[in-house]
Predict the 3D structure of the following.
Amino acid sequence: MRLQVVIYARASEDGKGRKVSVASQIAQGRRWCERVGAVVVATLVDNDLSASRYVTEERPPNR
């Protein structure tokens, strides 16, 4: 049985200028899976969402 993997990609405000986008995280995860022979069973994305459980409002676009 092959290793089953869920790729989780998350990006919020990039204050450090690293430019690590959700798309690049997913691509990197897929490349890793190919190298080790794992199969991706799901891809989860949080794009520009706060990790705080106390946030009650959505962020405005482009922030």
